[in-house]
Design brief:
The chain is an alpha+beta fold. The protein has four helices and four strands, in the order H-H-H-H-E-E-E-E. A hairpin with a 5-residue loop joins strand 2 and strand 3.
Length: 154
């Protein structure tokens, strides 16, 4: 039976220890970078929906924009399902005569969950370089858009 002693230990290798420390530091840094990217893009699907909506408005494709708003590109097949916010009401709000007028440009400037347990996110959009932000709510569950009761200010 052989017993191992301190004198039998492998010799200290400073290069190996340095590689281990570098690997540990790189691993920690990678985790931090990935966590940061995930956190900063946590509302990307909702921001993408709002971006698509405003792209349709900029192109004066109001019917397509309404389909994005309702998350139903085939809304014309069953308009009776949208009596609560009809296309004509939508056009009054978002068309050339609406509060925002003709929309030529937009920029998403913020996305926040208004409170813990909220069922959606509020996206702040700068329209036509106006100072006032447009606040659009996107539901997590079905990706429908709505006017937000939570106004964003910058």
């Amino acid at each position: 039976m052989s017993s191992s002693t301190l004198f039998d230990a492998a010799p200290y290798d400073p290069a190996r220890e340095r590689r281990k420390r570098i690997l540990l530091a790189v691993s920690i840094l990678a985790v931090i970078v990935v966590a940061t990217v995930v956190y900063l893009n946590r509302y990307w699907p909702e921001e993408h929906r709002v971006n698509l909506f405003f792209q349709q408005l900029e192109a004066n494709n109001y019917e397509s924009a309404y389909g994005v708003w309702m998350h139903d590109p085939e809304w014309k097949q069953h308009p009776q399902d949208y009596k609560r916010y009809s296309f004509s009401a939508f056009y009054s709000d978002w068309g050339p005569g609406g509060e925002w007028g003709l929309i030529h440009s937009h920029k998403i400037v913020a996305a926040v969950k208004p409170r813990s347990g909220a069922s959606g996110v509020v996206i702040g959009v700068r329209i036509n370089d106006r100072k006032q932000l447009c606040s659009v709510r996107v539901e997590f569950k079905d990706k429908t858009l709505a006017f937000s009761p939570d106004e964003m200010v910058e």
